[in-house]
């Protein structure tokens, strides 16, 4: 017999030999199954924390929104910090069940939300002081 593969052989037959690397790499037995929601899969995978990505997005948007007169940053920062409490409790209750990268995303979003909140309050105070100063000293240029 030659070492060349037989291209006329039926790939669904039992005699069909596949490359062991490809079979091992894509087999369902060794591939971990991950799910973003629900319980852990039978393969032993972990799941992402609920709303971790949304908290990260809201935290980043609160940073950006804090430079838009402070109001959007204040609202988005409050929402991001408030939403982060439930996933944080879930992760602390059972850290092995949840993916650590989603926990890090949630923490980063919460920190960005806190920073966005502080910046919004600071910018709001500066604007308030500037308006009071402008009203008390009506000088026209």
Give structural notes.
The protein is mostly helical and 141 residues long. It is 57% helix and 0% strand. It is built from 5 helices and no strands. It has helices spanning 20-26, 52-65, 71-83, 85-93, 100-136. Helix 3 (71-83) runs antiparallel to helix 5 (100-136). The longest helix has 37 residues, at 100-136. It is elongated, with a radius of gyration of 27 Å. The N and C termini lie far apart (98 Å). The relative contact order is 0.14.
Sheet having the most strands: none
Fraction in beta strands = under 5%
Instruction: Return the string of H and E elements.
Output: HHHHH
Query: Helicity range of the residues?
Result: 55-70%
Tell me the span between the first and last alpha carbons.
Answer: 98 Å
What would the average pLDDT be, to the nearest integer? 79
| Helical segment count | 5
Assign the structural class, choosing from mainly alpha, mainly beta, alpha/beta, alpha+beta, or little secondary structure.
mainly alpha
What is the alpha-carbon Rg in Å?
A: 27 Å
* Overall spatial form: elongated
How many β-strand runs?
0
User: Low-confidence parts, pLDDT < 50 over ≥5 residues?
Assistant: 24-38
Please summarize what this structure is:
The chain has 141 residues and is mostly helical. The chain has five helices and no strands.
